[in-house]
Amino acid sequence: MHEESRDISGSGKFVREENDQAIRTLFEGVHPAQVADELSLLNEQDIWYAMRVLGVDNATRVFQYFDEDLQVRLASGEHRRMMAKMLEEMDHDDRADLVSELDEDVKDRLLPLVAHAEREDIRRLASYGEGTTGAIMSSDYASVRPGMTVEQTIQTLRLEAPDRETIYYVYVIDGVRHLVGFVELKDLIRARPNQKVEDVMKRDVIHVTVGTDQEETARMIGKYDVIALPVVDAHHELVGIVTYDDAIDVIKQEQTEDFEKFMAIGGEHEAGTYLKTNAFRHFHKRVYWIVGLAAVELVSGLVIHSYEDALTTLVLLALYMPMITDTGGNTGSQSATVVIRALALGEIRPNFVGLVKVFRKEIIVAGLMAIVLMFLSFGKVLFLSYKAVLPGEFTLSGIGSVIALALGIQVLSATMIGALLPMIAARCKLDPAVVASPALTTLVDITGLLIYFGTARMLLGV
Questions:
Q1: CATH code for residues 11-130
Q2: Closest CA to 20 of 49, 43, 62
Q3: Which class for 234: exposed (0-12), middle (13-18), buried (19 or more C-beta within 10 A)?
Q4: Does domain 297-460 sit in CATH 3.40.50.300?
Q5: CATH architecture for the domain at 143-243
Q6: Which of 17, 74, 306, 347 is the most buried (most CB within 10 A)?
Q7: What is the reported pLDDT for 285?
Q8: Whole-prediction pTM value?
Q9: In this structure, are strands 143-144 and 169-173 parallel, antiparallel, or unpaired?
Q10: pLDDT of 349 over the 70 cut
Q11: Which residues cross the membrane (predicted)?
């Protein structure tokens, strides 16, 4: 099936008419992803009919582009024999992921129909812990022995290429499957046919282990700009590879997780599941943090209540409370975002040295922002409140100066809280993204009100 895009709408009509020739003609030469999008509009029975018409090979390519929940429903149906053949043809890592999502009774009915070698491969890949490199790797790689000639290696690749996920890297293993090097396809093409693989291979192999965190593996693929990374076990035996497309999937998942944690959304964090998750599930993931934060916000009310006399004496202070709290929340969130990103990319580490580096940088940034915002806020007070009627002992410029000073202190405070909390959380083995959530805004709101009214009381005597 060639990879091109064209209008293939109307397949449902041909499926209902059981017009096999029209189905084949319609999908001929169309990219499997586009076929999957079209078939996803049909019911499961019609999808299976269309896939039987396409044949196992083409149906497998299409199946791998279905959403995970549709894959699970199709695999859990009655078409077990064709599903078993498709599992044998699927990418190794994708089929292991699918089987991991199936109910135990479905596995018990389906897996015995899969060929023994593929069945054992599925079980082995599915046994690795979630979030580890072993859980996302594929056992579908090309390997040769160091004593083989270049000509023998190329002949081996010709035979194996159709069944391998990538042949751009050929991994060199010894008699006990220890990873001893790798050779790129371009180097094989340029080498003399009678040269030994060990003479053209690279011995310094960047690799990961099955227990390496999947995010770290994805980051390494990007850092070293490689198509795939070999994966070894505790005995340094080659057991699989992780390809760049797997890394992209991991990055999407991790970004979704970070974004949702950043906004205090609990539960599982999967990319591309917003519309597929029902409203009650979304409610369940969000409500606990929101209720908890709302309870904590009562502290803000207590702070305001304790300064009720100050507000009664000088009502003008109430008009600029939102500016203080909002600015603190914004600067704190900005600081937390850049620090969390730096932690995620490994630019900084949650140790004393990293803490000092972050403090130095953020205190300079916060100081500059504070100066700019103090001038702006002072001008804002003079411009917006020039008609305000004030008690005799107060002047507008004096009140503006106090508000500007409080805002400057709030910017410094919020920026440092936003920067240091993720560092402290990471140091304590907690998730920094959870700290930099609405909880940060709540904390900054409370400290902002204390700074605001405290400054007013000290300098204005209210």
A1: 1.25.60.10
A2: 49
A3: exposed
A4: no
A5: Roll (3.10)
A6: 74
A7: 62
A8: 0.59
A9: parallel
A10: yes
A11: 287-307, 363-384, 396-421, 433-453
